[in-house]
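The pair is quoted verbatim as follows:
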Amino acid sequence: MLIPIGQVNSEVRRLPWVTIVLLSLNTLVFGLMTLGGADKENSREVRKRTIHLVQYWQAHPYLELPKELSDYWGTARASRIRKQIDAEHEKMRKLSPLFPEPEAMAEEQKELARRGRSLVEAFQASSSYRFGFVPGKKTAQGVLFSMFMHGGWMHLLGNMLFLFITAPFLEDVFGRPMFAGFYLVAGVVAAFAHAMKFPDAMTPLIGASGAIAGVMGAFLIRLGQSRIKFLCVPILFLPFIRFTFALPAFVVLPFWFLEQLIWNWLMPDAGVAWWAHIGGFLFGMAFALVVGVARIEERFIHPSIEKEIGWQQHPGLTRAGEARAA
């Protein structure tokens, strides 16, 4: 197992307040959602209502499963599930020689539709749906809130680790205001890259990975020569056997981006927003290129930072020295 743990040169000129705030906000939001316990109860309710619906449908295989349910069962996964359901349904219809009277079938169809609506309501009651970014309904609050929500401890820790490794150094060269604005815009671009691929999906998108992918793309262009340190644990159940090594960012980050493209091709229905990662990364690269070509750092950012952290001799002392010399 390889774990990125930092950079060989980890010096910055100022305390990275924007990065610290981002790390704190992500952790705080996750803690509040976890301590509330509402999502655990909601997950149990979704499972219960799913079983309730599927059991009834299996007992009445001649009924049509509500089509709107597929919108809540993933993005690319939804079409695959829908095809499987339709194929299984057709097979079951052929094996079922007896059909009830039309009036009875209509009532049974209404009952199945009622159970389907109940399941959809359970999906919609989750915090991820209410506050996350849902491509099918696209709200400004959803785009913003989704960047600070996570689906579990591993999801949070993985994202915060990559943010900690890259963001302080990009904040140091971009300056606090520009980095903060860039981070938020990268998250928005990543969310809409995902929505362009799945425009009608009702599955919520949550997590900071799209914005962090933007940071990584900009890091590749601006700080590609930096060396990233890795901890290697060859045998997971023998953690004391380990070693560290370093690789340049221009090797690590393109490999990560290629990995996103490959996984998107191999497992488009894995439940991971691959297109958010791809879109965020490409936007970060483009942003850093524009900043470099326009020489924004040299003209505006670095003089301002150096003026803040550097020192200058007081003009009065200069005049006194000249007077004394005269």
